[in-house]
TrEMBL record:
Belongs to the LysR transcriptional regulatory family. The keyword Signal does not apply. It holds the Pfam family LysR_substrate. It comes from the Bacteria. CDD domains: PBP2_LTTR_aromatics_like. PANTHER family: HCA OPERON TRANSCRIPTIONAL ACTIVATOR HCAR, TRANSCRIPTIONAL DUAL REGULATOR HCAR-RELATED. Coiled coil: none annotated. Keywords: DNA-binding, Transcription, Transcription regulation. This is LysR substrate-binding domain-containing protein. Residues 1-58 form the HTH lysR-type domain.
Length: 323
């Protein structure tokens, strides 16, 4: 039983709708329903009555909801106080990372500058999907989070677009399609069996990608399914196969381990963002954000100038910045 799963139940009670509760909690509706069912099984009683008009708590669910309200309010106050004291003491900054985030040069430069300036401050990294990272940012258990821009943000959260990544094809070096460096067409892509990322709770961008490809008249040939980004790459290597992945995967694997090809007319791209909550001037989160701002500006200038090799494949841009 996890704290966020209890919050799913509270949201369902307050919204009277599983769909609205899922939107509020930034999670896929099937995942929210599964967690509430898990909660009911663990407690040994039905918590919600479902109908065509929505959901209402049972008698047991109503009592459980009222108890949770008190406890969650207390937990929220305790977390806020602890984070406030931690910020005052310069103890820690919470940063949410996507799978490939730690490989970005601009992030590493910003962290190096921050650590040189604030040696007493620890940085606590959390690696997860966009939805989970933004949920933690909303809960104030993270100070900053990278995300792909496909998650609703609360009004108090600030956000900056860093760059746009193309989706590319990663292949085992012995794969038949690895013999060329030329960009692939969608018709060529459709003939290549793929390792596909199928996450259990919200498929991140791959669910939208599947719909986009089908709307473009392409049905991907899915040969294997992976349940994590690490497994996606591992299965691609183990099977001698291919997968669709973000351009930044070029940074995430040693040179020569995979071969990469651009794909023409892909129906979607990934917009990498940095989101954060306001922090007092001079606090550790504000200091780290200042260094990130400067290094993101430098990063965007490097993309425009084409000064890093991974920004292009066979002469075609795979990373871009707006304007």
């Amino acid at each position: 039983m996890e704290l966020r799963h209890l919050r799913y139940f509270v949201a369902a009670c307050e919204e009277g709708s599983l769909q609205r509760a899922a939107q509020r909690m930034n999670v896929a509706q099937p995942a929210l329903m599964r967690r509430i069912r898990d909660l009911e099984e663990e407690l040994g009683c039905r918590l919600l009555e479902r109908s065509s008009r929505g959901v209402i708590p049972t008698t047991a669910g109503e009592r459980f909801y009222r108890d949770l309200q008190r406890h969650l309010a207390g937990i929220g106050r305790a977390v806020a106080q602890a984070r406030s004291r931690g910020a005052e003491q310069g103890e820690q900054v919470g940063v949410g990372l996507l799978y490939n985030s730690r490989r970005y040069t601009f992030l590493n430069r910003a962290i190096a500058e921050f650590r040189a300036e604030r040696r007493e401050v620890k940085i606590a990294f959390v690696r997860s999907q966009s939805r989970e990272l933004i949920a933690r940012l909303h809960d104030r258990t993270l100070d900053l989070a990278f995300h792909y821009g496909n998650v609703p943000l609360r009004p108090e959260v600030r956000d900056r677009l860093i760059h746009t990544e193309h989706l590319i094809l990663a292949l085992h070096p012995d794969h038949p399609a690895a013999g060329s460096s030329e960009p692939l067409s969608l018709a060529e892509l459709a003939r290549i069996p793929l390792v596909w990322l199928a996450l259990r709770e919200g498929g991140e961008y791959h669910d939208a990608l599947l719909h986009g490809l089908r709307a473009s008249g392409v049905e991907p040939a899915i040969a294997l399914r992976a349940e994590s980004y690490e497994e996606l790459i591992d299965l691609t290597l183990a099977s001698g196969g291919a997968c669709i992945t973000a351009a930044s995967t070029v940074l995430a694997v040693p040179e020569g381990v995979l071969t990469f090809r651009a794909i023409r007319a892909m129906p979607m791209r990934l917009n990498l963002h940095l989101a954060w909550t306001a922090a007092p001037e001079g606090s550790p989160p504000a200091a780290l954000l200042r260094h990130l701002d400067a290094q993101i500006a430098r990063h965007q200038a490097e993309i425009r100038g084409g000064t890093q090799g991974w920004f292009r494949l066979a002469g075609q841009p795979i990373v871009e910045v707006p304007g």
